[in-house]
């Protein structure tokens, strides 16, 4: 039984878990299915360059996401970069500051200007704020379906249509989610999913570009392979952004397991919802059923005043227990080097508040329900002892 701060690892007690419990613990698919595909790869001696497993995964993802064109890449960052190249984007690109730093980095590396925008109440790019930052130099908008929830697709679509610029979606978090009954993947000019190991559906490392634009898909296929359209014919500039057969095999095995992984993630999320219900100052993000969120992320907002401790103090206490909660996307793109220097004085209060409040807890389909119960018990204890913990300060 937990009685006071002395029972916490930060104050010298043994931790709840002796090995770290991570956010986004990767799903591990059926090993036998993966090994059988590896045997065939060895037999064929065809390891990469648009191999049969990559082609099969692209076909299966097209069917699963109900989108005509799927182009697999080495990772999502390279995928979004290819889209920028193939659409000839120049000048300024609007993006939310509250997203993974990869997008701002690739825009800057491409010689484009990332223009950081505010979030709405859904934690995603606010169309009204984007409209206010739109100039004649704006050439595209890249919006994130953050934490697997569709962003304001219709509001941003209207904005981009009126401006005559492409709307692109960073769907890194959102595999399997739906907007108005349709799987994400067919919206905007293109959507880019990350298939990194930490994602709901993964290929260890990988990216997926989806589009309804056949000409764009053809260009993307050329550009991901140095621009080669034949063994010695080059049609355009390109890089190496290809997916290997090993990664595609991981994807095929994980795609078979995805419905079960998603159901497990939903059960984990529900266990957190029950386990943390009624806590003052800690609010779990609960996606509406209609969006079919993959429930891969367990996102909590900590209101320091109501909870009695700051989010950072709670993360510190949990980490000491082996519960490796993480603050995302701290400190926000506009406050991160090197982008902060290019945006002196830029203030995005809603984004900054989120960066100071949000914490991810270990979740997803690979998490363990008994461990979730322990994590909730610990958070409830910390909440109930907040004043004593505050007064005890840090051990040592
Ligand atoms: N857009 C968005 C909105 C994104 O979130 C991302 C990637 C991208 C674009 C770009 O996609 P890619 O180009 O990567 O395809 C991780 C991932 O590396 C990154 O892919 C991901 N977002 C981001 C949100 O998370 P870090 O720096 O937080 O990684 P790391 O190593 O700290 O891992 C996160 C957690 O997962 C840790 O608690 C440890 C755990 N973990 C990680 C790995 C790799 C495991 O348990 N097993 C593992 O194998 O960026």
UniProtKB/TrEMBL annotation:
Keywords: Aminotransferase, Pyridoxal phosphate, Transferase. This is Aminotransferase class I/II-fold pyridoxal phosphate-dependent enzyme. Coiled coil: none annotated. The keyword Nuclease does not apply. It comes from the Bacteria. Pfam families: DegT_DnrJ_EryC1. GO terms for molecular function: pyridoxal phosphate binding; transaminase activity. GO terms for biological process: polysaccharide biosynthetic process. The keyword Cell inner membrane does not apply. Belongs to the DegT/DnrJ/EryC1 family. Signal peptide: none annotated.
